[in-house]
């Protein structure tokens, strides 16, 4: 005991120096990432920062009951032991049925890989295709969880803009052609077709078909990230690119984080069996949790449809409350109102600040009013996008969202007046 104390003390007091000593030992992939700047912190009164599901919607009691039943059952030991490489087979079977019934996606259980959240799946897919210097195309803007692994793997990242119908496929084709002519053809396209994070838009059916065709013409793989597809408030479901493209062209990523509980860390990647096998070989995490896999399966079996229906209603109301606050906040100064599109699902409102407004100043004004959100730069691979801000309506109450919307308006007006 006595010997341990001085060591701990020495580390604690010499922390800075100790870290400087190991600087040269870091691997290349541990190089600092482009900083992602969040205004405010989780401690902000009105936190519209992360895509964190509403804690009030977490089915805690029911999960507690199911966990108790599971651990007491014959399957309890398996739930607490190492599991199958691909994740709990019962969950993969259930997801296969759900995909067929609700999403129009045909995937057998061995075409599904359970991951530690879909962030993990995105990282492993990037690893499967990207060697340093390989070209990956991302949307501008895009989700930072998709960008991070590409940066880490030292991909050459190319951006293609979005509009209200999602990825601009004409620009995409131009980029693909330019890259091919330069002798650096794209290998991977990362796209978020439903209720885009951060832009809130949907990729239209025509464009989905076009993207699938371009993947054949230019020989690249599509990583289709569908974290929010189930949270549709209005309109018809649009078929996934996975279901429209030739088999093998698309790897689809999905998650239970937004429709059940992010803390269970259950994501799933859908791909042909051979691809799943290769992805498994890269997944060095000792396997997805057999416990949360079983728990999620038990919950989904019991209440998938009912719960998703409830969530759609909860998040639609939240979106409406935020938009109400924003509209009210600009009633007297419509010329200062940011441009935005009303998303038909998901978690995010993406505002384009009026021309000449300094995004940094808006962020400071917002922080001063207790409002936290993510500034646009976090979502552009090249760090541009200062004229945008992303507000997540998922976490706050309707009342707070309306107030927060007014405060964002106040912050923008105050920044414009300076
Ligand atoms: C577009 C998108 N993809 C993937 C994820 C990852 O979610 P998880 O790792 O919790 O499954 C998120 C979460 O914010 C997201 O917004």
Q: What does this protein look like?
A:
- The protein is an alpha/beta fold.
- The chain has 15 helices and 13 strands.
- It has helices at residues 4-13, 15-22, 60-72, 76-79, 89-103, 118-129, 144-152, 169-181, 205-218, 241-244, 257-261, 273-282, 290-329, 359-368, 398-416, and strands at 46-47, 112-116, 135-140, 156-163, 166-167, 186-191, 221-226, 250-255, 266-270, 348-352, 371-372, 374-375, 388-392.
- An eight-stranded mixed sheet has the order 2-9-8-7-6-3-4-5, sandwiched between helices. It has a three-stranded antiparallel sheet with strand order 10-13-12, covered by helices on one side. It has a two-stranded parallel ribbon with strand order 1-11.
- Helix 10 (241-244) links the parallel strand 7 (221-226) and strand 8.
- It is globular, with a radius of gyration of 23 Å.
- Mean pLDDT is 92; it is low at 1-14 and 34-40.
Mean pLDDT: 92
Bound molecules: pyridoxal-5'-phosphate
The rounded Rg comes to: 23 Å
What's the number of domains?
A: 2
Low-confidence stretches: 1-14, 34-40
What is the β-strand count? 13
What key phrases describe this protein's structure?
418 residues, alpha/beta, Aspartate Aminotransferase, domain 1, Aspartate Aminotransferase, domain 2, 2 domains, 8-stranded mixed beta sheet, 3-stranded antiparallel beta sheet, disordered N terminus, binds pyridoxal-5'-phosphate
Summed up:
Mean pLDDT is 92; it is low at 1-14 and 34-40. 44% of the residues lie in helices and 14% in strands. It is built from 15 helices and 13 strands.
């Amino acid at each position: 005991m006595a010997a341990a104390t001085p060591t701990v003390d020495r580390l604690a007091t010499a922390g800075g120096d100790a870290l400087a000593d190991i600087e040269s030992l870091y691997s290349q992939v541990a190089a600092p990432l482009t900083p992602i700047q969040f205004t405010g912190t989780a401690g902000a009164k009105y936190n519209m920062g992360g895509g964190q599901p509403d804690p009030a919607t977490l089915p805690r009691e029911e999960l507690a009951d199911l966990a108790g039943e599971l651990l007491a059952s014959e399957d309890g030991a398996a739930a607490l032991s190492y599991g199958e490489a691909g994740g709990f087979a019962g969950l993969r079977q259930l997801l296969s049925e759900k995909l067929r019934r609700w999403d129009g996606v045909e995937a057998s259980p061995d075409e599904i890989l359970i991951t530690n959240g879909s962030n993990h799946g995105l990282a492993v897919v990037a690893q499967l295709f990207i060697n340093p210097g390989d070209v990956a195309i991302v949307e501008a803007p895009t989700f930072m969880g998709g960008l991070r692994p590409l940066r880490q793997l030292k991909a050459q990242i190319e951006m293609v803009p979005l509009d209200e119908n999602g990825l601009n496929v004409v620009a995409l084709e131009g980029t693909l052609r330019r890259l091919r002519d330069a002798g650096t053809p794209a290998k991977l396209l990362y796209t978020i077709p439903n209720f885009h994070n951060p832009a809130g838009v949907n990729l239209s059916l025509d464009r989905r078909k076009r993207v699938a065709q371009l993947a054949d013409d230019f020989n690249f793989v599509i990583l289709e990230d569908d974290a929010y597809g189930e949270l549709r408030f209005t309109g018809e479901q649009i078929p996934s690119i996975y279901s429209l493209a030739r088999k093998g062209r698309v790897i689809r990523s999905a998650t239970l984080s937004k429709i059940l509980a992010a803390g269970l860390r259950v994501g799933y990647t859908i791909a042909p069996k051979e691809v799943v096998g290769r992805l498994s070989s890269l997944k060095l995490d000792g396997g997805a949790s057999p416990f949360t896999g079983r728990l999620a399966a038990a919950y989904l079996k019991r209440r998938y449809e009912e719960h998703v229906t409830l969530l759609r209603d909860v998040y639609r109301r939240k979106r409406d409350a935020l938009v109400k606050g924003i509209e009210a906040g600009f009633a007297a100064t419509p010329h200062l109102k940011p441009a935005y599109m009303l998303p038909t699902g998901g978690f995010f409102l993406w505002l384009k600040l009026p021309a000449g407004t300094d995004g940094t100043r808006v962020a400071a004004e917002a922080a001063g009013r207790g409002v936290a959100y993510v500034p646009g730069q976090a979502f552009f691979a090249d760090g541009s996008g200062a004229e945008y801000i992303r507000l997540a309506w998922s976490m706050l109450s309707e009342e707070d969202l309306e107030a927060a919307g007014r405060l964002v308006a106040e912050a923008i007006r105050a920044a414009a007046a300076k």
